[in-house]
Design goal:
Layout lengths: L26 H22 L8 H14 L3 E2 L11 E5 L2 E3 L14 E10 L2 E10 L5 H18 L8 H13 L4 E2 L5 E3 L6 E5 L16 E4 L2 E3 L5 E3 L6 E3 L5 E3 L2 E4 L6 E2 L3
Antiparallel strand pairs: 1-4, 2-4, 3-12, 4-5, 6-10, 7-8, 7-9, 9-14, 10-13, 11-12, 14-15
Helix pairs in contact: 1-2, 3-4
Bound molecules: 2-amino-4-trifluoromethylsulfanyl-butyric acid and cobalt (II) ion.
Length: about 270
């Protein structure tokens, strides 16, 4: 289980929010997560330089692991639930968790999502970016831009005193206003000493408020947006999630700290 799969409402599956155990990080923990986030942000900036037609997704993973280790960090994805690489590299209709492949070359016009996580002195940061490979179609460029904007629409509400659904609903409503499909089978999550902590953070509006946000909460907020239908399925490698209808998908994620003022984006 990677991003945990959030179960939609039914008589037998209640949302977990009533029982969520959301940790409040101490100043010491926040300092470590800040450093983890800074390193992860730099990792993404450096990895971006390698994204070009011709490179293999396996090479991107190898570079990513090398960069992460050069900071004395551990790639959190490697070996997580058996995941075989350090970076998730998801191309075009792949939504998330694409497994890097030494024989798979990026091509001009592709879009590629890179998702990475680092552990620094026991604390985690998780972030994803979607990049164009060379010149891409206007539609693809717009999907990338709007997915990033979804994140920013959401974190406008990532403030102490608001509820989780304020974030979720604004992410989802923004994507839907462009006619895009919001992936509902995968969600964001709390993060700290574990990559996946409570709460689960859907990217769409719900009929309840969700937890009350408080200073010291750290959240991985990660819109996953499809150009077409929201439905996704898992391929037979057991990891790669693709859109059902074959449409393009983009992913943008940062680790965010709730404060008593503006949210702090730790992985930028
Ligand atoms: N960013 C992804 C997540 O939030 C990373 C998990 S991929 C895995 O779940 F490889 F680590 F499983
Ligand atoms: Co994540």
């Amino acid at each position: 289980m990677a991003h945990r799969i959030w179960k939609r409402f039914s008589l037998t599956s209640l949302p977990s929010w009533e029982t969520d155990m959301v940790t409040i990080k101490s100043e010491r923990e926040i300092a470590l997560m800040r450093e983890a986030g800074r390193i992860l942000a730099e990792t993404h900036e450096r990895l971006r330089e390698y994204v070009a037609a011709g490179i293999t997704t396996g090479e991107i993973d190898r570079k990513g692991e090398e960069i992460i280790r050069s900071y004395g960090c551990v790639p959190s994805f490697l070996g997580y639930e058996g995941y075989p690489a350090s970076i998730c590299v998801s191309v075009n209709d792949e939504v998330v968790h694409g497994i890097p492949d030494k024989k798979r070359h990026l091509e001009e016009g592709d879009i590629v999502s890179l998702d990475a996580g680092v552990i620094y002195k026991g604390y985690q940061s998780d972030a994803a970016r979607t990049w164009p490979v060379g010149a891409v179609s206007q539609e693809a460029a717009k999907l990338i831009r709007v997915t990033e904007e979804c994140f920013y629409e959401g974190i406008r509400y990532a403030r102490s005193g608001n509820h989780l659904n304020d974030i979720c609903s604004h992410i989802g409503d923004y994507a839907v206003s462009f006619g895009y499909g919001v992936v509902y089978d995968l969600v964001g999550h709390g993060i700290g000493s574990e990559m996946h902590e409570d709460p689960e953070i859907p990217n769409f509006r719900m009929n309840r408020k969700g937890i009350l946000l408080k200073p010291g909460m750290t959240l991985a907020i990660e819109p996953m947006i499809n150009m077409g239908r929201p439905d996704v399925c898992w391929t037979d490698d057991g990891w790669t999630v693709v859109t059902d209808d074959g449409s393009l998908s983009a992913h943008y994620e940062n680790t965010v700290l709730i404060t008593d003022g503006d949210p702090e984006i730790l992985s930028l």
